[in-house]
Please model this.
Amino acid sequence: MALFRMPSLGADMEAGTLVEWLVKPGDVVERGRVVAVVETQKGAIEVECFEEGVVEELLVPLGRKVPVGTPLARIRAPGEPETAPAAPAVPPARAAPPASEPAGAPAPPAPAPAAAAAEPAPAAAPPAAPGPKATPAARRRALELGVPLARVRGTGPEGAITVADVEAAAGAAPAAPAAPPPPAGPAAAERIAAPAVRRGFDPVEMRKAIAAAMSRAKREIPHYYLETVVAMHRALAFLEERNRDRPPPERLLPATLLLKATARALAKTPELNGFWLEGGFRPGPGIHLGWAIALRGGGLVAPAIHDVDRLSLDALMAALRDLVQRARTGGLRSSELSDATLTVTSLGERGAEAVWPVIYPPQVAIVGFGRIVTRPWVDEEGGLVARPVVRVTLAGDHRASDGHLGSRFLAEIEDLLQRPEAL
Amino acid sequence: MSTGVRTTYRECCKQAIRAALLADPRVFLMGEDVGRYGGCYAVSKGLLEEFGPERIRDTPLSESAFVGAGIGAAIAGMRPIVEIMTVNFSLLALDQILNNAATIPHMSGGQFAIPLVIRMATGGGRQLAAQHSHSLEGWYAHIPGLKILAPATLEDARYMLAPALLDPNPVIIFEHIMLYNMEGELDPSVSSVDIEKAAVRRPGRDVTLVTYGGSLPKTLEAARELAGEGIEAEVVDLRVLRPLDEETILASVRRTRRAVIVDEGWCSGSLAAEIGMRIAEKAFFDLDAPLRRVCSREVPMPYAAHLEQAALPSRERIVAAVHELLGRGG
Model:
């Protein structure tokens, strides 16, 4: 049995309001499925779940604001016995039978359904499901190995599940996980695609969120700053060539090259790609670039594009358009908001020439691109020419890296932008 | 095995003092019965004859007065070694130690250093009853401004004093009474030790036994017994009780995922409690079993031998605690 919890959609989020359920008890869900919409300071976010199984019970009613970490729903893993007869109408709010005792006839919920039903809402904090006793290390190992604790027999003190028990269970389990129940078919797909009613961003709340994150950044992060001016004539010529026969919606924008070059350079300096957590650097699980998007009503979000280093330029451009579109209409996903491993801010055609950005904690660096402008330039032969150039800046967290590394990173971006065909 | 000299812990303590007296004319030893009687535990026997009454000074039975004199001498530039007969008696000097020695460097804005070393005997096991047998190291380890050492090996007994005298802060060295007769060969390859780090005295993969001072030998015995059953216990000797070398403790617990803390102090509010809490705070997600402590029973130390032994941590209790953590027996 897994608990689907109110996710943290950024270091500054403390609570969220559940505004829409996209699943109901009995629905089959899989990893990545959008199951709910949560209203946060950053607007309405589609929240994905990271479990697979059957939704057994929704624990939080619509419209309720709950702290990060509060269980929102119970999800039964494939193959796990049901803990209650299929009567989802009366959730056993307080007397959930222990998931660790699947043997015997499934006990009906405690005999107080009438009373439970009469009560308008469960207490503010739903009771924790009494899971099997397991040590902290065993729980972590179980998560790593994907072993549901309910299937592990404990041999530790007081019958607790230990790391060795989890590993034994993982080794003994049939190699392939039990086949999940047949996917729900087109219905599920439709449900994902079904446009939900979105609420717009609340500019006041968003301002508060930005204020909190940026104050924290300037309070906690010792920033260092570097700048390099990069000639863009080759990159722009490359884009012109690529875009020549394409209709406007399919054209590549310079941002694509800037993002891709950043991602490729990051692959060479992974020390800038990740998070400063608990007094140490933790590398990011991939190169997920946050893209700072200014919103029309004021404010800013920086959702992530995943694995930018592995996307083709066309795929990246499509992702970028999609992201900007959804950011402005309030359809961002939870993983996009919490996943970025480094943020890129680009001022675009009407921006200033250079930006000295503030790091978004807990990330350890941010890259800024100014407006592409034509400026005098000394070319390879020593001649003075007019060239399009862009000022590229890096703000780095000096706890995690030093200027020498940052310089190498910027030099790599510069080098990549001179060889756009390789991007 | 080695060509070390066969010696005792007591002799190592004495040679440490002798070497300090020879090396620096500012060093002197002062305390009750340290001169003519040769020290309550015979540590300073013979030193009065060798160094004379100026440097080996017998004091009246007045802990507060002679510890205070030691503090004054240290401020004035001397390097006093003050011996207090047992930690129980040191409570008479607690005002000097806590309110003066530990605070003057701080309250004078660093104008006065107090390079004072206080040695005291601690612990039970010799039927000296409830006023001479307690293990109060943890109380001193509570006090910021002090450095607390607990030598548990011949090498530490022999070499910890020198860096302690070099330290500008007051340092207290606890010598456990059951260790004085411990015999062995002093490792000839060692000529100095640090007073910063804990030491892993026995590597192991299944459980970490954290201990110090007089409990180290029993803990090592317990580890040997466990090894006979195939349980490999790692033994961490704290050596320095303040400031604690958290890094070594946590690194070991992260490897073994289990910890038993063996501390002759009483359980409540003990050094063992502090270590357990730090493990819980900083290595919680690495733990594969609850934490356990083996401490002295919470009673004034009994006089009767069998009751005294029952009150103190023992090899059997350490082994039983490990069994519990591993889900065996119990």
Observations:
- Chain A touches chain B at residues 135-138, 140, 155-157, 159-160, 162-164 (CB under 8 Å).
- The longest strand of chain A covers residues 384-397.
